[in-house]
Amino acid sequence: MSTRSYAILGTGAIGGFYGAKLQQLGLDVHFLLNSDYEQVCRQGLLIESPTGSFTLFPVQAYHDPQKMPACDVVIIALKTTQNHLLPQLLPPVLKEDGVVIVLQNGLGIEPQVAEIVNSKRIIGGMCFICSNKVGKGHIRHLDYGMITIGEYQENYQPIKITPRIQKIAEDFNHAGIPTELSENLLLARWKKLVWNIPYNGLSVVLNAKTDELMNSPDSRILVEEIMREVVNAAKGCDCIIPEQFIQKMLNHTEKMTPYLTSMKLDYDRKRPLEIEAIIGNPLRMATEKGVDLPHIAMLYRQLKFLDFKNRSPDS
Ligand SMILES: NC(=O)C1=CN([C@@H]2O[C@H](COP(=O)(O)OP(=O)(O)OC[C@H]3O[C@@H](n4cnc5c(N)ncnc54)[C@H](OP(=O)(O)O)[C@@H]3O)[C@@H](O)[C@H]2O)C=CC1
Ligand SMILES: CC(C)(CO)C(=O)C(=O)O
Protein backbone atom coordinates (compact mmCIF):
# COMPACT_ATOMS: atom_id res chain seq x y z
CA MET A 1 0.00 0.00 0.00
CA SER A 2 1.30 3.46 -0.96
CA THR A 3 2.08 5.93 1.81
CA ARG A 4 1.80 9.02 -0.37
CA SER A 5 -0.34 11.80 1.07
CA TYR A 6 -2.66 13.80 -1.18
CA ALA A 7 -4.05 17.34 -0.91
CA ILE A 8 -7.10 18.23 -2.96
CA LEU A 9 -7.40 21.94 -3.77
CA GLY A 10 -11.07 22.31 -4.73
CA THR A 11 -13.37 19.55 -3.55
CA GLY A 12 -15.91 19.72 -6.36
CA ALA A 13 -16.98 17.47 -9.22
CA ILE A 14 -13.54 16.08 -9.98
CA GLY A 15 -11.57 16.87 -6.80
CA GLY A 16 -14.31 15.40 -4.62
CA PHE A 17 -14.71 12.30 -6.78
CA TYR A 18 -11.04 11.43 -7.30
CA GLY A 19 -10.06 12.40 -3.74
CA ALA A 20 -12.82 10.24 -2.28
CA LYS A 21 -11.74 7.26 -4.39
CA LEU A 22 -8.13 7.66 -3.21
CA GLN A 23 -9.22 7.85 0.45
CA GLN A 24 -11.48 4.83 -0.03
CA LEU A 25 -8.35 2.93 -1.06
CA GLY A 26 -6.87 3.82 2.33
CA LEU A 27 -4.64 6.74 1.30
CA ASP A 28 -4.12 9.83 3.44
CA VAL A 29 -6.17 12.53 1.67
CA HIS A 30 -6.73 16.15 2.81
CA PHE A 31 -9.52 18.18 1.22
CA LEU A 32 -9.66 21.98 0.90
CA LEU A 33 -13.25 23.20 0.74
CA ASN A 34 -14.99 26.50 0.31
CA SER A 35 -18.77 26.83 0.81
CA ASP A 36 -19.27 23.09 1.58
CA TYR A 37 -16.83 22.99 4.49
CA GLU A 38 -19.30 22.75 7.39
CA GLN A 39 -21.61 20.30 5.66
CA VAL A 40 -18.69 17.99 4.78
CA CYS A 41 -17.31 18.14 8.35
CA ARG A 42 -20.75 17.10 9.68
CA GLN A 43 -21.94 14.62 7.06
CA GLY A 44 -18.97 13.70 4.90
CA LEU A 45 -18.85 13.62 1.11
CA LEU A 46 -21.64 11.83 -0.74
CA ILE A 47 -20.45 10.26 -3.98
CA GLU A 48 -23.09 8.96 -6.38
CA SER A 49 -21.59 6.88 -9.13
CA PRO A 50 -22.63 4.12 -11.53
CA THR A 51 -19.49 2.30 -10.30
CA GLY A 52 -20.83 2.33 -6.72
CA SER A 53 -22.20 5.12 -4.52
CA PHE A 54 -20.78 5.75 -1.06
CA THR A 55 -20.43 8.30 1.70
CA LEU A 56 -16.90 9.22 2.68
CA PHE A 57 -16.81 9.87 6.40
CA PRO A 58 -14.91 11.20 8.22
CA VAL A 59 -13.24 13.61 5.84
CA GLN A 60 -10.00 15.48 6.63
CA ALA A 61 -11.61 18.76 5.63
CA TYR A 62 -10.07 22.22 5.78
CA HIS A 63 -11.18 25.74 5.09
CA ASP A 64 -7.73 27.24 5.38
CA PRO A 65 -4.69 25.89 3.51
CA GLN A 66 -2.40 27.09 6.32
CA LYS A 67 -3.98 24.43 8.56
CA MET A 68 -3.36 21.60 6.09
CA PRO A 69 -0.28 19.38 6.31
CA ALA A 70 2.26 19.61 3.48
CA CYS A 71 1.52 16.65 1.16
CA ASP A 72 3.43 14.51 -1.35
CA VAL A 73 0.92 15.13 -4.14
CA VAL A 74 -1.25 18.22 -4.52
CA ILE A 75 -4.15 17.98 -6.95
CA ILE A 76 -5.39 21.28 -8.39
CA ALA A 77 -9.12 20.78 -9.00
CA LEU A 78 -10.44 24.32 -8.76
CA LYS A 79 -12.06 25.91 -11.77
CA THR A 80 -9.29 27.72 -13.66
CA THR A 81 -11.21 30.95 -13.04
CA GLN A 82 -10.07 30.64 -9.39
CA ASN A 83 -6.40 30.07 -10.21
CA HIS A 84 -5.51 33.62 -9.12
CA LEU A 85 -5.83 32.14 -5.59
CA LEU A 86 -3.07 29.56 -6.16
CA PRO A 87 -0.15 31.71 -4.88
CA GLN A 88 -1.91 31.62 -1.46
CA LEU A 89 -3.35 28.08 -1.62
CA LEU A 90 -0.51 26.05 -3.08
CA PRO A 91 2.76 26.66 -1.17
CA PRO A 92 1.52 25.66 2.32
CA VAL A 93 0.18 22.27 1.18
CA LEU A 94 3.15 21.10 -0.92
CA LYS A 95 6.07 19.17 0.63
CA GLU A 96 9.52 20.32 -0.38
CA ASP A 97 9.93 17.24 -2.61
CA GLY A 98 6.22 16.99 -3.44
CA VAL A 99 4.53 17.30 -6.85
CA VAL A 100 1.54 19.23 -8.15
CA ILE A 101 -0.94 17.71 -10.62
CA VAL A 102 -2.98 20.19 -12.63
CA LEU A 103 -6.21 18.29 -13.28
CA GLN A 104 -7.92 21.19 -15.05
CA ASN A 105 -9.20 21.57 -18.57
CA GLY A 106 -7.44 23.81 -21.05
CA LEU A 107 -3.92 24.84 -21.91
CA GLY A 108 -1.25 27.07 -20.43
CA ILE A 109 -2.01 26.48 -16.74
CA GLU A 110 1.21 24.57 -15.97
CA PRO A 111 3.39 27.59 -16.96
CA GLN A 112 1.30 29.72 -14.57
CA VAL A 113 1.81 27.18 -11.77
CA ALA A 114 5.54 27.22 -12.60
CA GLU A 115 5.58 30.84 -11.44
CA ILE A 116 4.62 29.56 -7.96
CA VAL A 117 6.54 26.27 -7.67
CA ASN A 118 9.57 24.88 -9.49
CA SER A 119 8.56 23.65 -12.96
CA LYS A 120 10.26 20.29 -12.24
CA ARG A 121 7.51 19.53 -9.73
CA ILE A 122 4.56 19.96 -12.09
CA ILE A 123 2.50 17.25 -13.75
CA GLY A 124 -0.48 17.77 -16.02
CA GLY A 125 -3.59 15.63 -16.05
CA MET A 126 -6.57 15.49 -18.41
CA CYS A 127 -9.77 14.06 -16.96
CA PHE A 128 -12.11 12.15 -19.24
CA ILE A 129 -15.00 12.17 -16.85
CA CYS A 130 -18.56 13.50 -16.63
CA SER A 131 -19.13 14.55 -13.04
CA ASN A 132 -21.06 17.36 -11.36
CA LYS A 133 -21.28 18.84 -7.90
CA VAL A 134 -25.05 18.81 -7.42
CA GLY A 135 -25.32 20.01 -3.81
CA LYS A 136 -23.21 20.74 -0.76
CA GLY A 137 -20.75 17.88 -0.36
CA HIS A 138 -22.70 15.94 -2.98
CA ILE A 139 -20.91 14.75 -6.12
CA ARG A 140 -22.70 12.98 -8.95
CA HIS A 141 -20.37 10.99 -11.19
CA LEU A 142 -22.25 10.25 -14.41
CA ASP A 143 -19.85 8.52 -16.78
CA TYR A 144 -16.23 7.68 -17.67
CA GLY A 145 -13.34 8.60 -15.37
CA MET A 146 -10.00 8.01 -17.06
CA ILE A 147 -7.10 10.41 -16.46
CA THR A 148 -4.17 10.97 -18.83
CA ILE A 149 -1.08 12.09 -16.93
CA GLY A 150 2.13 13.63 -18.27
CA GLU A 151 5.15 15.37 -16.77
CA TYR A 152 5.41 19.09 -17.50
CA GLN A 153 8.68 20.47 -18.76
CA GLU A 154 9.35 24.14 -19.54
CA ASN A 155 7.61 25.22 -22.77
CA TYR A 156 5.80 21.86 -22.78
CA GLN A 157 8.87 20.01 -24.12
CA PRO A 158 8.14 16.25 -24.37
CA ILE A 159 9.70 14.16 -21.61
CA LYS A 160 9.96 10.41 -20.96
CA ILE A 161 7.66 8.69 -18.48
CA THR A 162 9.20 9.04 -15.02
CA PRO A 163 9.00 6.60 -12.09
CA ARG A 164 7.10 9.22 -10.07
CA ILE A 165 4.21 9.46 -12.51
CA GLN A 166 4.15 5.68 -12.74
CA LYS A 167 3.76 5.52 -8.96
CA ILE A 168 1.01 8.14 -8.91
CA ALA A 169 -0.77 6.32 -11.74
CA GLU A 170 -0.57 3.12 -9.65
CA ASP A 171 -2.38 4.89 -6.79
CA PHE A 172 -5.14 5.97 -9.18
CA ASN A 173 -5.38 2.56 -10.81
CA HIS A 174 -5.64 0.82 -7.44
CA ALA A 175 -8.39 3.28 -6.51
CA GLY A 176 -10.34 2.14 -9.59
CA ILE A 177 -9.47 5.17 -11.74
CA PRO A 178 -7.95 4.10 -15.07
CA THR A 179 -4.92 6.15 -16.10
CA GLU A 180 -2.88 6.57 -19.21
CA LEU A 181 0.64 8.04 -19.25
CA SER A 182 1.81 10.51 -21.88
CA GLU A 183 5.31 11.59 -22.90
CA ASN A 184 3.91 14.65 -24.63
CA LEU A 185 1.70 16.73 -22.37
CA LEU A 186 1.22 19.45 -24.98
CA LEU A 187 -0.10 16.94 -27.52
CA ALA A 188 -2.36 15.34 -24.89
CA ARG A 189 -3.77 18.78 -23.96
CA TRP A 190 -4.42 19.67 -27.61
CA LYS A 191 -6.19 16.33 -28.13
CA LYS A 192 -8.53 17.03 -25.23
CA LEU A 193 -9.19 20.49 -26.70
CA VAL A 194 -10.48 18.89 -29.91
CA TRP A 195 -13.50 18.02 -27.74
CA ASN A 196 -13.60 20.88 -25.26
CA ILE A 197 -13.30 23.87 -27.62
CA PRO A 198 -16.30 23.04 -29.87
CA TYR A 199 -18.60 21.41 -27.31
CA ASN A 200 -17.94 23.65 -24.30
CA GLY A 201 -18.04 26.76 -26.48
CA LEU A 202 -21.05 25.91 -28.65
CA SER A 203 -23.07 24.52 -25.73
CA VAL A 204 -23.11 28.07 -24.30
CA VAL A 205 -23.42 30.06 -27.53
CA LEU A 206 -26.18 27.80 -28.94
CA ASN A 207 -27.74 26.88 -25.56
CA ALA A 208 -27.55 23.17 -26.34
CA LYS A 209 -26.66 19.77 -24.91
CA THR A 210 -24.23 17.46 -26.68
CA ASP A 211 -27.00 15.43 -28.38
CA GLU A 212 -28.63 18.59 -29.76
CA LEU A 213 -25.28 19.74 -31.16
CA MET A 214 -24.87 16.35 -32.85
CA ASN A 215 -28.43 15.97 -34.16
CA SER A 216 -28.75 19.27 -36.01
CA PRO A 217 -26.87 19.21 -39.34
CA ASP A 218 -26.00 22.89 -38.91
CA SER A 219 -24.43 22.67 -35.47
CA ARG A 220 -22.71 19.42 -36.44
CA ILE A 221 -21.00 21.23 -39.32
CA LEU A 222 -19.88 23.91 -36.89
CA VAL A 223 -18.54 21.28 -34.45
CA GLU A 224 -16.57 19.61 -37.24
CA GLU A 225 -15.19 22.88 -38.61
CA ILE A 226 -14.05 23.94 -35.15
CA MET A 227 -12.49 20.53 -34.50
CA ARG A 228 -10.58 20.88 -37.77
CA GLU A 229 -9.29 24.29 -36.66
CA VAL A 230 -8.12 22.82 -33.34
CA VAL A 231 -6.22 20.12 -35.22
CA ASN A 232 -4.58 22.85 -37.38
CA ALA A 233 -3.79 24.91 -34.30
CA ALA A 234 -2.12 21.89 -32.71
CA LYS A 235 -0.13 21.27 -35.90
CA GLY A 236 1.11 24.88 -35.75
CA CYS A 237 2.44 24.02 -32.27
CA ASP A 238 4.19 20.87 -33.61
CA CYS A 239 1.53 18.51 -32.26
CA ILE A 240 0.26 16.17 -34.93
CA ILE A 241 -3.27 14.89 -34.39
CA PRO A 242 -4.38 12.43 -37.08
CA GLU A 243 -7.47 13.41 -39.10
CA GLN A 244 -9.26 10.21 -37.91
CA PHE A 245 -9.19 11.58 -34.38
CA ILE A 246 -11.98 14.02 -35.34
CA GLN A 247 -14.25 11.17 -36.43
CA LYS A 248 -13.39 9.29 -33.25
CA MET A 249 -14.49 12.28 -31.11
CA LEU A 250 -17.70 12.68 -33.13
CA ASN A 251 -18.57 8.97 -32.79
CA HIS A 252 -17.74 9.05 -29.11
CA THR A 253 -20.02 12.06 -28.50
CA GLU A 254 -22.86 10.45 -30.46
CA LYS A 255 -22.78 7.52 -28.03
CA MET A 256 -22.53 9.72 -24.94
CA THR A 257 -25.50 10.20 -22.63
CA PRO A 258 -26.83 13.70 -23.56
CA TYR A 259 -24.57 15.98 -21.52
CA LEU A 260 -24.49 19.59 -20.43
CA THR A 261 -20.84 20.63 -20.61
CA SER A 262 -19.11 22.04 -17.56
CA MET A 263 -19.00 25.46 -19.27
CA LYS A 264 -22.76 25.42 -19.86
CA LEU A 265 -23.39 24.43 -16.24
CA ASP A 266 -21.26 27.38 -15.12
CA TYR A 267 -23.14 29.68 -17.49
CA ASP A 268 -26.53 28.55 -16.19
CA ARG A 269 -25.32 29.11 -12.61
CA LYS A 270 -24.01 32.55 -13.60
CA ARG A 271 -20.48 31.56 -12.65
CA PRO A 272 -17.37 32.78 -14.51
CA LEU A 273 -16.59 30.68 -17.58
CA GLU A 274 -13.21 28.99 -18.16
CA ILE A 275 -12.86 30.86 -21.45
CA GLU A 276 -9.20 31.80 -21.14
CA ALA A 277 -7.93 28.31 -20.22
CA ILE A 278 -10.07 26.41 -22.72
CA ILE A 279 -10.22 28.83 -25.66
CA GLY A 280 -8.16 32.00 -25.11
CA ASN A 281 -4.79 30.38 -24.28
CA PRO A 282 -4.90 27.83 -27.15
CA LEU A 283 -6.04 30.57 -29.54
CA ARG A 284 -3.12 32.81 -28.52
CA MET A 285 -0.57 29.98 -28.59
CA ALA A 286 -1.51 28.99 -32.16
CA THR A 287 -1.97 32.56 -33.42
CA GLU A 288 1.58 33.36 -32.26
CA LYS A 289 2.73 30.49 -34.48
CA GLY A 290 0.96 32.11 -37.43
CA VAL A 291 -2.13 29.86 -37.59
CA ASP A 292 -5.37 31.57 -38.63
CA LEU A 293 -8.36 30.35 -36.57
CA PRO A 294 -11.44 32.35 -37.61
CA HIS A 295 -14.10 30.09 -36.03
CA ILE A 296 -12.27 29.80 -32.72
CA ALA A 297 -11.55 33.54 -32.63
CA MET A 298 -15.26 34.22 -33.15
CA LEU A 299 -16.27 31.67 -30.52
CA TYR A 300 -13.86 33.33 -28.06
CA ARG A 301 -15.38 36.82 -28.57
CA GLN A 302 -18.95 35.49 -28.39
CA LEU A 303 -18.22 33.70 -25.12
CA LYS A 304 -16.52 36.76 -23.62
CA PHE A 305 -19.60 38.83 -24.52
CA LEU A 306 -22.06 36.28 -23.10
CA ASP A 307 -20.04 35.74 -19.92
CA PHE A 308 -19.82 39.49 -19.25
CA LYS A 309 -23.53 40.00 -19.92
CA ASN A 310 -24.52 36.96 -17.87
CA ARG A 311 -22.70 38.19 -14.78
CA SER A 312 -23.49 41.90 -15.00
CA PRO A 313 -25.75 43.06 -12.15
CA ASP A 314 -28.81 43.79 -14.34
CA SER A 315 -28.83 40.47 -16.23
N1 LIG B 1 -16.76 18.19 -14.06
C1 LIG B 1 -16.24 17.47 -15.03
O1 LIG B 1 -16.83 16.47 -15.47
C2 LIG B 1 -14.91 17.85 -15.63
C3 LIG B 1 -14.20 18.95 -15.19
N2 LIG B 1 -12.97 19.20 -15.72
C4 LIG B 1 -12.19 20.36 -15.27
O2 LIG B 1 -11.86 20.18 -13.90
C5 LIG B 1 -11.71 21.45 -13.26
C6 LIG B 1 -12.60 21.48 -12.02
O3 LIG B 1 -13.94 21.40 -12.46
P1 LIG B 1 -15.13 20.87 -11.56
O4 LIG B 1 -14.64 19.87 -10.59
O5 LIG B 1 -16.21 20.51 -12.50
O6 LIG B 1 -15.53 22.21 -10.78
P2 LIG B 1 -16.42 22.38 -9.46
O7 LIG B 1 -16.94 23.76 -9.48
O8 LIG B 1 -17.37 21.25 -9.30
O9 LIG B 1 -15.33 22.24 -8.30
C7 LIG B 1 -14.45 23.26 -7.94
C8 LIG B 1 -14.45 23.30 -6.44
O10 LIG B 1 -13.49 24.27 -6.01
C9 LIG B 1 -14.02 24.87 -4.84
N3 LIG B 1 -13.37 26.15 -4.56
C10 LIG B 1 -13.51 27.34 -5.21
N4 LIG B 1 -12.77 28.28 -4.59
C11 LIG B 1 -12.19 27.68 -3.53
C12 LIG B 1 -11.33 28.14 -2.50
N5 LIG B 1 -10.93 29.40 -2.43
N6 LIG B 1 -10.93 27.26 -1.55
C13 LIG B 1 -11.35 25.97 -1.60
N7 LIG B 1 -12.16 25.48 -2.55
C14 LIG B 1 -12.56 26.33 -3.51
C15 LIG B 1 -15.48 25.05 -5.16
O11 LIG B 1 -16.21 25.26 -3.97
P3 LIG B 1 -17.47 26.31 -3.95
O12 LIG B 1 -18.42 25.78 -4.97
O13 LIG B 1 -17.91 26.21 -2.55
O14 LIG B 1 -16.87 27.64 -4.32
C16 LIG B 1 -15.80 23.72 -5.85
O15 LIG B 1 -16.24 22.76 -4.93
C17 LIG B 1 -12.09 22.48 -14.32
O16 LIG B 1 -10.93 22.98 -14.94
C18 LIG B 1 -12.92 21.68 -15.32
O17 LIG B 1 -12.91 22.23 -16.61
C19 LIG B 1 -12.39 18.38 -16.64
C20 LIG B 1 -13.07 17.30 -17.11
C21 LIG B 1 -14.38 16.97 -16.68
C1 LIG C 1 -15.04 16.09 -22.13
C2 LIG C 1 -15.81 16.37 -20.85
C3 LIG C 1 -17.25 16.23 -21.10
C4 LIG C 1 -15.48 15.25 -19.91
O1 LIG C 1 -14.24 14.78 -19.98
C5 LIG C 1 -15.38 17.71 -20.28
O2 LIG C 1 -14.20 17.93 -20.19
C6 LIG C 1 -16.27 18.84 -19.90
O3 LIG C 1 -17.49 18.78 -19.81
O4 LIG C 1 -15.72 19.93 -19.67
From TrEMBL:
<protein>
    <recommendedName>
        <fullName>2-dehydropantoate 2-reductase</fullName>
        <ecNumber>1.1.1.169</ecNumber>
    </recommendedName>
</protein>
<dbReference type="InterPro" id="IPR013328">
    <property type="entry name" value="6PGD_dom2"/>
</dbReference>
<keyword id="KW-0521">NADP</keyword>
<comment type="pathway">
    <text>Cofactor biosynthesis; (R)-pantothenate biosynthesis; (R)-pantoate from 3-methyl-2-oxobutanoate: step 2/2.</text>
</comment>
<dbReference type="InterPro" id="IPR013332">
    <property type="entry name" value="KPR_N"/>
</dbReference>
<dbReference type="GO" id="GO:0005737">
    <property type="term" value="C:cytoplasm"/>
</dbReference>
<dbReference type="GO" id="GO:0015940">
    <property type="term" value="P:pantothenate biosynthetic process"/>
</dbReference>
<feature type="domain" description="Ketopantoate reductase C-terminal">
    <location>
        <begin position="184"/>
        <end position="305"/>
    </location>
</feature>
<dbReference type="InterPro" id="IPR036291">
    <property type="entry name" value="NAD(P)-bd_dom_sf"/>
</dbReference>
<dbReference type="GO" id="GO:0008677">
    <property type="term" value="F:2-dehydropantoate 2-reductase activity"/>
</dbReference>
<keyword id="KW-0560">Oxidoreductase</keyword>
<feature type="domain" description="Ketopantoate reductase N-terminal">
    <location>
        <begin position="6"/>
        <end position="153"/>
    </location>
</feature>
<comment type="similarity">
    <text>Belongs to the ketopantoate reductase family.</text>
</comment>
<dbReference type="InterPro" id="IPR051402">
    <property type="entry name" value="KPR-Related"/>
</dbReference>
<keyword id="KW-0566">Pantothenate biosynthesis</keyword>
<dbReference type="Pfam" id="PF02558">
    <property type="entry name" value="ApbA"/>
</dbReference>
<dbReference type="InterPro" id="IPR013752">
    <property type="entry name" value="KPA_reductase"/>
</dbReference>
<dbReference type="InterPro" id="IPR008927">
    <property type="entry name" value="6-PGluconate_DH-like_C_sf"/>
</dbReference>
<dbReference type="InterPro" id="IPR003710">
    <property type="entry name" value="ApbA"/>
</dbReference>
<dbReference type="Pfam" id="PF08546">
    <property type="entry name" value="ApbA_C"/>
</dbReference>
<comment type="function">
    <text>Catalyzes the NADPH-dependent reduction of ketopantoate into pantoic acid.</text>
</comment>
